[in-house]
Automatic annotation (TrEMBL):
It comes from Mariniflexile jejuense. The lineage of its organism: Bacteria, Pseudomonadati, Bacteroidota, Flavobacteriia, Flavobacteriales. It is an enzyme of class 2 (transferase). This is Histidinol-phosphate aminotransferase. The modification N6-(pyridoxal phosphate)lysine is found at K206. Homodimer. Pathway: Amino-acid biosynthesis; L-histidine biosynthesis; L-histidine from 5-phospho-alpha-D-ribose 1-diphosphate: step 7/9; Lipid metabolism. It holds the Pfam family Aminotran_1_2.
Length: 347
């Protein structure tokens, strides 16, 4: 597959903005920087941030065992997804394939960029119907979004199903691994070399406990990363975000320990949910949330709101009729949730 043929002509012809920090990258100690019209008085944020986030990428490359050349960072995964749309999808011509029920941003970004959407709903076990996915794609289907573990169902797709789609889809396949750190499945990162059309996205927003700094991570071939790099805003990751990410990633075993705690809490929560009379199904989960089917999702949602607990009502999503998505909280929060779920069971 030739990736160059998938890139929009406009993007191929684009000459990127060249920032002061792009044009001079040399020894930074003891140099006098008068090139970027910054305020010279030090306060920790008076200078523009590193446009290529060198230090942070080195840390991530060590954690994830991948070259920095295969990494692009975004202002949240949402910016990365938007860059992918703009690189590969021609407005009013191309389309994407999504597998509902799934993360809402794919559809929003397609609409925002005037890109068509082909939907192939997941089956009853929330697994992709692989042949239907491959059959629905046409020559203008540039992107296929695979969210695994999937939001809102929580399960991972089988590796056989994913491999068949990545191998046979004629465009770019984006595997959204926002919840991979909670999963028993292996990340597709280790297989990037095998599939030139594969993009894997991850985020610091979930397992790494940094939703507030907005840091999304994109892993792909050098060829794809280069394209996305030419179209990203020059200073897309601000200084505070880079600093905080480096600081927290440096705390030894922080994420590992918290993930273990959350998984333990998830098991406890699931066993307690089994005692709730109006919960008829607890879906298998590989993420930090649980999807449950109840008697009346709108009613239960409102009852919980009245008691001060906010969960996500997914009842309008395909295959999620009367389903609620519960994020695993602290032990205390989960206890409050269970108590409250029990207390409303008579009404
Ligand atoms: C939460 C989530 C993300 C993360 O988005 P950010 O913009 O990085 O916070 C991405 N994909 C899915 C499926 C998610 O649920």
């Amino acid at each position: 597959m030739n990736i160059q043929d998938l890139i929009r002509p406009t993007i191929k012809a684009l000459k990127p903005y060249s920032s002061a920090r792009d044009e001079f990258q040399g020894v930074t100690d003891n140099m006098v920087f008068l090139d970027a019209n910054e305020n010279p008085f030090e306060n920790g944020v008076n200078r523009y941030p590193d446009p290529q986030q060198g230090k942070l990428k080195v840390m991530l490359s060590e954690i994830k065992d991948i070259s920095t050349k295969n990494i692009l960072l975004g202002n949240g995964s949402d910016e990365i997804l938007d860059l992918i749309f703009r690189a590969f999808c021609e407005p009013n011509q191309d389309n994407i394939v999504i597998l509902p029920p799934t993360y809402g941003m794919y559809e929003v970004l397609a609409n925002l960029n005037a890109i068509g959407i082909k939907k192939v709903n997941l089956d009853d076990a929330f697994q992709p119907k692989v042949d239907d996915v491959l059959n629905v794609a046409d020559i203008n289907s540039k992107l296929l979004f695979i969210c695994s573990p999937n939001n809102p169902s929580g399960n991972s797709f089988t590796s056989e199903a994913i491999e068949k789609m990545v191998s046979n889809f004629k465009g770019i396949v984006v595997i959204d691994e926002a919840y991979i750190d909670f999963s028993t499945e292996k990340s597709w990162l280790s297989r990037l070399n095998e599939f030139p059309n594969l993009i894997v996205t991850q985020t610091l927003s979930k397992a790494y406990a940094m939703a507030g700094i907005r840091l999304g991570i994109c892993y792909a071939s050098e060829e794809i990363i280069k394209v996305l790099n030419t179209i990203k805003p020059p200073y897309n990751i601000n200084e505070l975000t880079q600093k905080k990410a480096i600081e927290l990633l440096n705390v030894k075993d922080l994420a590992t320990n918290q993930i273990a705690d959350i998984l333990k809490e998830r098991s406890a929560l699931i066993s307690e949910l089994k005692a709730i009379s109006y919960i008829s199904k607890i879906y298998p989960t590989d993420a930090n949330f649980v999807l449950v089917k109840v008697d009346d999702a709108n009613k239960r949602y409102n009852q919980l709101i009245e008691k001060g607990i906010v969960i996500r009502n997914r009842t309008s999503q395909p295959g999620c009729e009367n389903s609620l998505r519960l994020t695993v909280g602290t032990p205390k929060e989960n206890e409050i949730l269970i108590k409250t779920l029990l207390s409303i069971s008579k009404s």
